[in-house]
Amino acid sequence: MKKLIGFLFLSMILILTACGSDTPKATNEASDAKPEAKEPVNAEKEVSKNLKIGDSATIDDVTVTINKVAITDERNEFEEVTPERAVLIDFTVENNTDADYPVGMDFSFYVDGKKVESMAVGNVTFDAISAGRSMDGQVAYPADGEKLELEFKPMMHIGNEKYIFDIEL
């Protein structure tokens, strides 16, 4: 159910974004300015790795801190995947922007380099934070593997910047 709500929210944002106009407005002024250099298509992604539990990462005035990671025995009987091991990640998000910020779609979790979907376990967080405020949240993932990484990139971020937290149990 929470995946459906997240999907609907994301779909709504994409539809509203697609309805916007990116056509430049005509002006009567002559311009001597040189065109801006565009970023090359194959530009290297900006990735900060090797953050640990307790570290903070900030992108676009949104700061996330991974507070705690624990193995959980809790499972949702309606989940398609029933892993042997699952992690519950406690985090804090600080919204230092001037607008409300949606929380819940900012993380990707990788097990041995393969992306896995979140689990509806614990107090899964899909919410919004008012400007200048913070909140605590939780997210759970299957963790049947050796190398566990949590990737943080705000859902509304346009650039390639992201942070990777190494998850050690």
Automatic annotation (TrEMBL):
Residue segments, region Disordered: 25-46
Coiled coil: none
Signal sequence coordinates: 1-18
DUF4352 domain segment(s): 52-159
Entry keywords, A to Z: Signal
InterPro entries linked: DUF4352, Immunoprotect_excell_Ig-like
Domain of life: Bacteria
Presence of the UniProt keyword Isomerase in the record: no
Comp. bias intervals (Basic and acidic residues): 31-46
Descriptive protein name: DUF4352 domain-containing protein
